[in-house]
Amino acid sequence: MEYTLNDVILAFGLTLFAGLSTGIGSTIAFFAKRTNTKFLSLALGFSAGVMIYVSFVEIFFQAKESLVMALGNLRGSWVTVLSFFGGIALIGIIDRLIPSAENPHEIKMVEDCQNCTQKDKRLIRMGILTALAIAIHNFPEGLATFTAALSNPSLGIAIAVAIAIHNIPEGIAVSVPIVYATGNKKKAFTLSFLSGLAEPIGALVGYLILLPFLSDLTFGILFAGVAGIMVFISLDELLPAAREYGEHHLSIYGLIAGMVVMAVSLLLFI
């Protein structure tokens, strides 16, 4: 498969945008008195809708098409399914290895630490470990965004926006304990920013290691794995977070809206 330099730059730029949106969450933690839970609930539901729809309707079938071309119908179909669940297993293992207290899926809000004492070492540790956990999570997300954008720029834009939305609460999760433990907004923002950089690093690794070997076979396996990763993130991260932040119905409305927007955008680029 041939890709131009412009294709690679666009894919990398979208991945960088998605990763660094942790900084938006960090900024919210600095200036907001309270977390806008209704907005976050809708936004996270929307992000889940985009990622679930595009994974099942577009990415999975593109992967299958590539693998069937490389391996034939029967073997290609089996490898597609195995790669899809392999992606789920990969992100699930990463998730299990992170202690729950530092897991980025654990909801934190701006008001959580307003009664916390300054110089609380436990909070500093929590913020640093949360940043590390998010960085580990963001690595495969970066690879997913980069691969999708390289294959189809319009698809890449949609996925980058969805990943960016879901990175906002992660930025809050890093910044809240650091700000209230140290009073140092610069340190909190820097940690949040660095955790987001794992996403473009994932893209860079994908480019340097995988791109030279990107045939129909490797592309299909990678793309099916990406679909699995995004479905797991949506079901394990985004929807539970959306429900915790706001009302159950708001998260579902956001989910459906995300699916509709994704469906329409795909139809427009047929």
Verbal overview:
The protein is mainly alpha-helical. It has one domain (5-268). Helix content is 82%, strand content 0%. The chain contains ten helices and no strands. It has helices at residues 5-20, 22-31, 37-71, 73-96, 121-151, 153-182, 185-196, 198-210, 216-245, 248-268. The protein is globular and about 60 Å long. Residues 101-105 have low confidence and may be disordered.
**SSE string, helices as H and strands as E:** HHHHHHHHHH
Question: C-alpha Rg, in Å?
Answer: 19 Å
Low-confidence stretches: 101-105
Mean pLDDT: 78
Number of strands: 0
Biggest β-sheet description: none
Overall geometry: globular
Helix segment count?
A: 10
Tally of discrete structural domains: 1
Distance from first to last alpha carbon:
21 Å
- Helical residues, percent: over 70%
Structural class: mainly alpha
